[in-house]
Amino acid sequence: MRRYLFVFLATIAIALSFTSCATIFGSSSYNAKVSVPDHPNAKITVNGQQKGNGEVNLSLKRKEANKLNITVEETGKEPQTFTFNRRKVRGVATFFTVLSWLGPIPVGIIVDASTGAWFKPDVSEPGVTKVDYKNYTYTLNYHPNDSSQKSKKTTTNTQSNTTSKADKLRELKQLYDEGVLTKDEYEKEKAKVLKEN
Q1: What CA–CA distances, in Å, run from 167 to 19, 39, 159, 173?
Q2: What is the pLDDT of residue 52?
Q3: 183 by DSSP, 3-state: which?
Q4: pLDDT grade, residue 62 (50/70/90)?
Q5: Does 15 share its domain with 98?
Q6: Theoretical Cys-Cys bridge with 181: which of 9, 16, 135, 185, CB 3.0 to 4.6 Å?
Q7: Do 128 and 154 share a structural domain?
Q8: Whether residue 15 is found in the same domain as residue 79
Q9: Same domain, 85 and 155
């Protein structure tokens, strides 16, 4: 009798587990190939973790396909971040999960919902390509700016700010010397100019 009960319970458990179609067929993760064409030495960082250079293969969670930030950076160049914030429902897998739901407890639906197996990357986002239900490619159009150009720009801005400060101070001194400003007014205005960035 015990043996029959065990077989019966095992059969129910197996039947219920097969209702999580999306998790079984496609799993809760997918394979992603991240590629940066023409930049084989570019450092690739995915969600804050460095993964490699130029081209990397990753396993990513389906439920987080809409929370993907990939930063690409080359030495001496400005980093560029690509954000993927959309995902789609895997229609066929979800349909079969619901269709094959057995028993009073929707085990399959609970399993698929908790693992996020119903989702897939949205191929309408620029750079995302579907190879098959389990494999996707992210081709990143990286156009780096030279970071030395940025520092030159910053230096120029700082110099122009400094120059304009000097001009303002000269102007204030002239107004004070001409008696237009009192000593207190001159000191207050001078302090304001010196505090400017």
Answers
A1: 77, 46, 12, 10
A2: 93
A3: helix
A4: confident
A5: yes
A6: 185
A7: no
A8: yes
A9: no
C-alpha of 154 from chain center: 27
The pTM assigned to this predicted structure is 0.57
pLDDT one-digit tens code per residue, 23-38: 445 577 889 999 999 9
> By three-state DSSP, how is residue 158 classified?
helix
Task: Give the tokens for residue 63.
Answer: 């439920």
Q: What's the pLDDT score for residue 39?
A: 93
What per-residue string of b and e applies to 126-137 under the rule 16 or more CB within 10 Å gives b? eebeeeeeeebb
| Edge-to-edge order in the sheet of strand 49-53 | 49-53, 43-46, 68-73, 80-84
What does the pLDDT read at residue 159? 47
Q: Answer yes or no: do 48 and 108 share one domain.
A: yes
In 47-197, DSSP assigns E strands to 49-53, 55-61, 68-73, 80-84, 87-89, 119-121, 128-132, 135-139
- C-alpha of 52 from chain center: 16
Backbone angles phi, psi at 76, to 5 degrees: 80, 5
Cβ proximity of 44 and 144 under 8 Å = no
Domain co-membership, 135 together with 156:
no
Name the residue range of residue 134's domain: 2-139
Task: Tally the residues of the chain.
Answer: 197
78 and 27 in a common domain? yes
Number of domains in the chain: 2
Say which DSSP state 82 is in. E
How far is Cα 21 from Cα 27, in angstroms, rounded to an integer? 9
